[in-house]
Each structure stands twice: as structure tokens, then as C-alpha cells.
């Protein structure tokens, strides 16, 4: 298991080099910069733990960040520190208990060719270390280099962890959280997200439409690419009005009837903020060099008829898993099925993860083997918002009308 401080705090994910063949724009300002690098920690215990006062150290920089007073990490929650949010950018969003911090630096901290990430606890006078890209284990107590001022009597917890090698543009992350298994070929996942439909959503099937909450494993749903496909698994999560009032990130995005063009959606559609819809156009081709991309709902808010809302009653979010990541038709709108990736694994509580593991017939530490390939490119940040605005400006529909392969009619609004 992971080396931990304060009974459960582990280094969980490191974005070493944001740029590469597949780049990652952590602050979403449209430019991938060295300061998009980040360190994420996780609470692996079953109790809340204060992370106030924990310090991040680097051999080349020294002491570069301290978690602020009052910072408490709930069980299973994450805290991410980005090196520096740049002009036009913002901190990522995550789950209800995830924390995000901006170190406010103008230049990179992490040495891409190899480095140690060290977290020091001045209260207990001990530290944990994660190294990567073949770097040797540092001994910061010797005070050399950037470790000047580090406690000479501090003790290392565990033996120091080797996260392996990074792939530029990808993060090195544990799979699952807190394990001693590391993944280096997946998209970075700062924090957690909900990627799901709300109860009451009509999903297109070969024989008409069905409320998503009425679907069962084995039922067929229509997909844009592969026709009728069986549902493998459904998982639901309730979000109360109180939770959504305190944490606006949990509120759904409402797409008013017809707001996406060509009469879509056919009725008001409610999605979690990170659920992606398909945008297909010549504009997408010009921006992303591919005619179809998937864009998270929150990137479309502010457009006519698209807004984040606080419902008057509790919301049930439903995750719909197929054998592959597919494009479904929800209220006639092309949108994604549950995408099995690090974000979805992190969004699920232990019981749901165990149910998924049993369904797939794999051991808990092998969940990463169930990861899916995305059905389309994920567009995000400034470029995604620019794409949406250009569609509105040129009066082009955002979402394509798919050829119907079902028996009509749709249920009326």
C-alpha cells in the first residue's frame, strides 16, 4: 500500500509534463503551459484528516507550498495543487469534498527528466517521497540543494515510492486510489466528477424510448456508431438539495428544449456538469481537426437555453455503462455513455466499485484494465467554449440530428 502521513494522506497523482502528443490544460485557459503541472494527494483512510500545515518540497525549488489552516480532507477525497493558474484560467472542479489550490508560481517546479515529490509534516516531523523517471531517492534531511532549511531530524515514512516513468501530456496516477499500482498512459484526472444523466431522461431504444431509471442490464439502447447495444450496468447516486446548495458543482445543467438546434433536445435535458454531449460541424473540424468532438455540459453554460440550475427537489444521477464508450441518444441528443476512466472510478463509492469489479470479473487492483477508449476526442477549456460560441454566432446547431433507428413516437413533454 501507499506510504502515508497522518494516518492516511498519500501522494496520488503527478502531472510531470503537461505538454506532449496528448497535452493537458489543467487551468483550462486554452494554453498548455509548464505551470499546468500538478500534485494530487488523497485521503486513503475512513476518517477525515487535517492536511493543514503539510508542506511540498522540491530539490530544485525548496519549500514551495503549504496547505492552509483549516484544510480538512474527507475520506476518499483529493487535494490538488497546481503550480500556477495563468491568465484566463481557473482551478479544476471535482467531487463535493475535493480541494484545489493554486501555488501561484510563474514557472515550473517539477523537473521533467526526473525528480522527487516530497511532502513534509512539521507536526510529526516526518515525510513521504515519490520519485519518477529514474531519479534517485533524495535525502532532504542532509540540507543540500533546495532542501536548505528542511528538518535534519525528520524521518522518512516507508521506503519512498517509485512512480515509474511518465508519458508527456499524461499523468502518473495510482490505480485505484491508495494502491501500489501506477498508471502512466491515461488522461490526467485532477479531482473527481459525476458523469451521468438525471432521472426522467428518455433514452432511445430499438423499440421506442425508455426512462433511464427503467432500464435494466441486458436491455438494448441505440448508439450512434454501433446500433443497438446491451446495457451492462446501471449505477445511481442521489444528490440532495442541501448538498447542491452548499456545492454548486453538484447541480445539473439544464438544456432547454431546442437549445442545441434542429429541435434538440426534444424535451428539457438535465445532465451532470461533466457529462459530455456530441458537437459535429465544420467549425469543430477547423478548431480540432476532426468533425465530431465531445464537450462537457458545463462548457456550454451561458449559451441561450443552457444553464446550471438548483432543482427544488433531490436529484438522482444515473450512470449507464455499455461494453464500450458509446454515443447514446438522450431526449434525441447525442451524448456519451459512462466512460470508464480514472475520473469515473474516483466518483464511485466503494460499494459501487465492488459491484463493477464483480460484474467485470476482475480483481479490485485490476480495475484499470477495464478502461475504455473514448468514442470521440474530448474537447475542453477555452477551445471548447470558443467552439460553442462560434456555433451560436454563425447560427449553426450544436448537436447533430441522428438518423432514427427506433419506432416512433417519442413521449411528449
Salient structural properties:
413 residues; mainly beta; six-stranded mixed β-sheet; 29 strands; globular
Side by side, the strands of the main sheet go 8-7-2-1-13-14
Q: What share of residues are in beta strands?
A: 25-35%
Shape: globular
Largest sheet: 6 strands, mixed
The number of distinct helices, counting runs of at least 4 residues, comes to: 5
Q: Using the CA coordinates, give the radius of gyration.
A: 22 Å
Give start-end ranges of low-pLDDT stretches: 403-413
Structural class: mainly beta
- Mean pLDDT comes to 85
Outline:
The chain has 413 residues and is mostly beta strands. 10% of the residues lie in helices and 30% in strands.
Write a structural description.
It is globular and about 70 Å long. It has a 6-stranded mixed β-sheet with strand order 8-7-2-1-13-14, with no helix packed on it. Strands 4, 5, 9, 10, 11 and 12 form a 6-stranded mixed β-sheet that branches. Strands 15-26-20 form a 3-stranded antiparallel β-sheet. It contains 5 helices and 29 strands. Helix content is 10%, strand content 30%. The longest helix is centred in the C-terminal third of the chain and has 13 residues, at 381-393. It has 413 residues and is mainly beta. 47% of the residues are buried. Strand 4 (55-58) and strand 5 (62-66) form a beta hairpin. The termini are far apart.
Could you outline the blueprint of secondary structure elements for this entry?
Layout: E1 9-15, E2 38-43, E3 49-50, E4 55-58, E5 62-66, E6 72-73, E7 78-82, E8 99-102, E9 115-121, E10 126-132, E11 155-156, E12 161-162, E13 171-174, E14 182-186, E15 197-198, E16 202-205, E17 208-211, E18 220-223, E19 227-230, E20 233-239, H1 241-246, E21 253-255, E22 269-271, E23 276-280, H2 282-288, E24 292-296, E25 306-308, E26 315-321, E27 327-330, E28 333-336, H3 342-347, H4 350-360, E29 377-379, H5 381-393
Parallel strand pairs: 7-8, 10-11, 10-12, 24-29
Antiparallel strand pairs: 1-2, 1-13, 2-7, 3-6, 4-5, 4-9, 9-10, 13-14, 15-26, 16-17, 18-19, 20-26, 21-22, 21-25, 23-24, 27-28
